[in-house]
Amino acid sequence: MPSRDKIIVALDVPDLAAGEKLVDQLFPYVGMFKVGLEFYTAAGPAAIRMIKERGGKVFADLKLHDIPNTVAGATRALVRLGVDMLNVHAAGGRSMMEAAAAAAREEAAAVGRPAPVLIAVTVLTSLDGEALRHEVGIEREVEEQVVRWARLARDSGLDGVVASPREIRAIREACGPEFVIVTPGVRPAGADLGDQRRVMTPAAALQEGASYLVIGRPITAAPDPAAAARAIEREMEGII
Ligand code: C5P
């Protein structure tokens, strides 16, 4: 896979016009764009259609988490919009994930498209061990819980997980070489960390076993986003 197809650019923007500007600058230097809660809540399905109309792929990072019937319905709606990747919370459990996987498969077949890559969110990286134990009430170590949920996602028929750079290796070992691992918290050498704390360079994250890298501000806040994306791709070329 060429390095540009391994980069997913996070479009954390407040409105459709800002998203359009970035996609026009970045496509085709970047193949996939992440639409998260901010952009989707502001612009709705138009955010996804805008990217698809320009030829880009879409990762709908909406972290679905509800009863199985509701998550299945939302999954079908996202498939009809043409998303290429979407995610649900592993905390929703096996029946919710199985319902999402079945809905993705069935709806994709019905509209004649390949099924989207369906991945799970495990432990949010904003939760540390202390918060997991005392606030959420989960007694396990963070990494143990991450791996437990990654296995559950795989056993429920999902394709992979979103995982921070430091979790990649344990998940890869537990879930095998085909499991998709999508990794945010990536910063090119020397870049501004923003609010990210535990970061890795793109090359290091790929070496750890990441399948895709989610990169936002190092590209979107650069004076020339396309040049920033191409520089990151060159940094990645050496190792894939
Ligand atoms: O700008 P930056 O590269 O930090 O953007 C990273 C993207 O990945 C953001 O959209 C952020 O919400 C998302 N993300 C993250 N850490 C996680 C999960 C998602 O940074 N654990």
Automatic annotation (TrEMBL):
SUPFAM superfamilies referenced in this protein's UniProt entry, alphabetically: Ribulose-phoshate binding barrel
Gene that this sequence comes from: pyrF
Pathway: Pyrimidine metabolism; UMP biosynthesis via de novo pathway; UMP from orotate: step 2/2
Oligomeric and partner information: Homodimer.
Broad class of enzyme this protein falls into: lyase
Pfam families: OMPdecase (PF00215)
Stated name of the protein: Orotidine 5'-phosphate decarboxylase
GO molecular function terms listed in the Swiss-Prot or TrEMBL record: orotidine-5'-phosphate decarboxylase activity
Task of the protein: Catalyzes the decarboxylation of orotidine 5'-monophosphate (OMP) to uridine 5'-monophosphate (UMP).
Protein family per UniProt: Belongs to the OMP decarboxylase family. Type 1 subfamily.
UniProt-listed NCBIfam families: PRK00230.1 (NF001273), pyrF (TIGR01740)
